[in-house]
């Protein structure tokens, strides 16, 4: 247990000392909030949960997996493999730090929404929203590790992740309401993990309530997350691709 | 005879599959005794790193048996890893951590928890005390290498495996690493070191295994390997003399020209040298720079393989 904590602390220190991690997790989300605050100030109730989901999605899909890939590319994972550390402990420590970073980022965005844009907030909303954000993060982190496992290089993973990210960002009811999409797309989108997380987080934070279909949505997320985790575990490698 | 601390029995290993498979080790067997500095000497691509990777549990051998400190590597991989201190060829560390934090973390990975004072002592031994709070990615090449050596003993291992620890270093940093290796040896640790530099093997190693094409083609002390050659010193002189007049000089075994240098293999370098001077004076020629080269591990490798050690396999 002490080994796990020491490792977790080390990975946390690596996160907060990494300029790219700091920018994408903390500066960029705030920038988004300020931009939306200027151009669509009357929609900030709708936008704030959207920005939260958007950012945990980008962090899970791109940020977190890229950092793991870089550790593999540089040979850091191989050096760790020469120690008696089990892979499961490394992944668990990494996951814990990623979850914590994602929560911190979400709290920051929400605080800015409440303070600057008068987005409503209740204790119940936070109590319901927190587990929904966590469920979303777990799913996105597992999806990101699949990209990390397949991509030969960190650059490729970032490219692939960004492609998926931008596509889903525009169609998953995060920054554009579903009604704006063509009919055929409106039929597909409700099955996307990003859409599910958006609905769950938005109902929690705006209405302080569970989405009417919350159980179905969480189950669907569990399937996405579980399958992704299984595939990611099969793809896990210590050494870089030759 | 004591029990060997490392036993390598008939190990074969390869990379890739099918037609593209590359055989890196072909049934290599070696034994390392406790307290030795054991060198694996061979050209790039000979299989030295693959052999260490197998010992470190980073590469799965296709066949054979490995034991480190009495533990079977295949059956108890984690227990085997605890016996070893490891330095890999490419230094890759958690680079956003400080030197002090890295020592703490790497020891903890072995479930060894060092007090700050212990970490300080360790860093002092590797001349890193002033850099304790520096991020590892800010270190110079020589400093990074010293840090990776310090990390290799953070878990206080009996056996230390060093993969070409000096290959990218300047001569000064290289000597510093040699001193460190000797210190680790004086602690009573067993050290296995790979190198393709024969002067490094001669300077450090009690015994050397010469590795080529995935096999150990010789294994002994550097002195005995050279003595077994029964080779003569070579006298090299920048002078132009007819070979037929050089051949009969005292001690000369053979003579030939390589470029502008006359190369004489001789059993009596002093006598040959004197006679060479007389001959040159008689013919009115002047002798430029002269050197005598004693036979060394380089010659052993050339004799055994027909190739030069410095040249890469491919």
Can you walk through the features of this model?
The complex is a heterodimer of chains A (about 240) and B (about 325). Chain A is globular, with a radius of gyration of 18 Å. Helix content of chain A is about 80%, strand content about 0%. Chain A is built from ten helices and no strands. By secondary structure, chain B is an alpha/beta fold. Among the domains of chain B are: about 1-85 and about 160-165 and about 190-230, 3-Layer(aba) Sandwich (Rossmann fold); about 230-295, Alpha-Beta Plaits (2-Layer Sandwich), CATH 3.30.70. In chain B, about 35% of the residues lie in helices and about 25% in strands. Chain B contains eleven helices and 14 strands. The chains are: A mainly alpha (about 240), B alpha/beta (about 325). The interface between A and B is medium-sized, with 25 and 29 residues.
Tag the structure with descriptive keywords.
heterodimer, A: 242 residues, mainly alpha, 0% strand, B: alpha/beta, Rossmann fold, Alpha-Beta Plaits, 11 helices, 14 strands, 34% helix
């Amino acid at each position: 247990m002490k080994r796990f904590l020491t490792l977790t602390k080390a990975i946390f220190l690596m996160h907060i000392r990494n300029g790219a991690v700091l920018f994408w997790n903390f500066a960029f989300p705030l920038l988004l909030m300020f931009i939306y605050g200027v151009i669509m100030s009357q929609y900030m109730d709708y936008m704030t949960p959207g920005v939260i989901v958007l950012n945990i999605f980008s962090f899970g899909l791109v940020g977190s997996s890229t950092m793991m890939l870089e550790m593999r590319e540089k040979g850091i994972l191989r050096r760790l493999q020469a120690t008696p550390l089990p892979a499961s402990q490394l992944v668990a420590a990494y996951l814990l730090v990623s979850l914590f970073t994602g929560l911190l980022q979400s709290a920051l965005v929400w605080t800015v929404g409440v303070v600057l844009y008068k987005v409503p907030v209740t204790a119940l909303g936070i109590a319901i929203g927190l587990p929904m954000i966590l469920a979303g993060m777990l799913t996105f982190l597992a999806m990101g590790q699949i990209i990390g496992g397949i991509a030969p290089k960190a650059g490729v993973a970032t490219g692939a992740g960004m492609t998926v990210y931008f596509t889903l960002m525009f169609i998953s009811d995060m920054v554009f309401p579903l009604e704006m999409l063509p009919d055929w797309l409106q039929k597909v989108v409700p099955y996307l993990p990003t859409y599910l997380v958006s609905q769950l987080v938005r109902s929690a934070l705006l209405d302080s309530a569970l989405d009417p279909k919350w159980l179905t949505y969480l189950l669907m997320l569990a399937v996405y997350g579980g399958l992704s985790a299984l595939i990611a575990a099969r793809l896990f490698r210590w050494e870089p691709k030759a | 005879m004591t029990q060997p601390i490392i036993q390598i029995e008939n190990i074969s290993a390869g990379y890739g599959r099918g037609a593209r498979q590359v055989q890196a080790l072909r049934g290599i067997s070696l034994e390392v005794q406790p307290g030795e500095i054991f060198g694996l000497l061979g050209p790039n691509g000979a299989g030295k790193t693959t052999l260490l990777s197998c010992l470190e549990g980073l590469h799965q051998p296709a066949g054979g048996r490995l034991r480190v400190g009495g533990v079977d590597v295949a059956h108890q991989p984690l227990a085997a890893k605890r016996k070893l201190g490891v330095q890999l060829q490419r230094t890759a560390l958690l680079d956003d951590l400080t030197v002090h934090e890295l020592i703490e973390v790497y020891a903890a990975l072995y479930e060894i928890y060092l007090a700050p004072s212990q970490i300080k002592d360790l860093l002092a031994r590797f001349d890193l005390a002033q850099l304790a709070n520096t991020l590892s990615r800010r270190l110079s090449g020589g400093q990074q290498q010293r840090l990776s050596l310090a990390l290799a003993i953070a878990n206080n291992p009996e056996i230390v495996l060093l993969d070409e620890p000096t290959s990218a270093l300047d001569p000064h940093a290289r000597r510093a690493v040699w001193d460190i290796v000797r210190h680790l040896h004086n602690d009573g640790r067993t050290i296995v070191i790979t190198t393709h530099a024969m002067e490094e093997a001669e300077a450090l190693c009690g015994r050397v295994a010469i590795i080529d094409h995935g096999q150990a083609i010789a294994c002994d002390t550097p002195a005995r390997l050279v003595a077994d050659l029964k080779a003569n010193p070579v006298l090299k002189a920048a002078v132009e003399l007819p070979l037929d007049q050089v051949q009969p000089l005292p001690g000369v075994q053979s003579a030939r020209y390589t470029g502008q240098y006359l190369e004489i293999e001789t059993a009596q370098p002093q006598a040959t040298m004197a006679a060479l001077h007389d001959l040159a004076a008689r013919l009115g020629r002047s002798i430029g720079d002269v050197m005598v080269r004693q036979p060394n591990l380089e010659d052993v490798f050339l004799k055994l393989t027909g190739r030069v050690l410095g040249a890469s396999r491919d």
